[in-house]
Amino acid sequence: MRKVYILLVFLFLNNFNYCFSQEPPVGFIPHLTKAGDTLSKIVPKSQWKIIMQINKIDEEHLPLNKIIFIPVNMERARKFTPLPTNVCSKRSERLIYISLANQFFGAYEKGRLVFWGPISSGKSKYKTPKGEFKVLWKSRKYRSKRYSQPMPYAINISAAGYFLHQQSLPGKPASRGCIRLLNSDAEKLFKWSKINDPVLIE
């Protein structure tokens, strides 16, 4: 499995650099938000998910007076991915990959990226640890014992109390160490993942 990890990271670093430079990804254009803007005022509801994904925000955290990316060609925008679409491996293991630097996750099955999404990892005082982990247990309606906060679709990856779960995404690292996900992504990853699936955080 370590060979898969090494190759994945190599491909990731060599394919990501273009994605969030000054130029918007293919299929997107820059848009300057202003006071009073909401997703519903900017684009039709059918485009909300892709805007939240690419800008790493949820519906409640649209940044104001800032540049965001919005789709101009939906066909091309839907094909965009910030992660490698394939990794060369004959193994059948699934893999959850977390990029702390770029704030995205990818779900790989048999070496193929099956879905991806934005994350919000630990803020400066609560940095999310890097390393190799695995899915230990899951709880659809878990509540944090440490912070007494709801953690829907919780996927535990460490006995130290680190999880992947649904929570707000403000477009930057903001958690106390866990990996926050959009609600739809958290539900999908919860259903897709299995106990002992490897998780790589870098």
Automatic annotation (TrEMBL):
Cellular component, GO, one term: extracellular region
Signal sequence segment: 1-21
Pathway recorded for this protein: Cell wall biogenesis; peptidoglycan biosynthesis
Gene3D superfamilies: L,D-transpeptidase catalytic domain-like
One Pfam family per UniProt: YkuD
Organism: Candidatus Wolfebacteria bacterium RIFCSPLOWO2_01_FULL_38_11
Gene Ontology MF, one: transferase activity
Keywords: Cell shape, Cell wall biogenesis/degradation, Peptidoglycan synthesis, Signal, Transferase
Designated name of the protein: L,D-TPase catalytic domain-containing protein
Annotated L,D-TPase catalytic domain residues: 94-202
Lineage: Bacteria, Candidatus Wolfeibacteriota
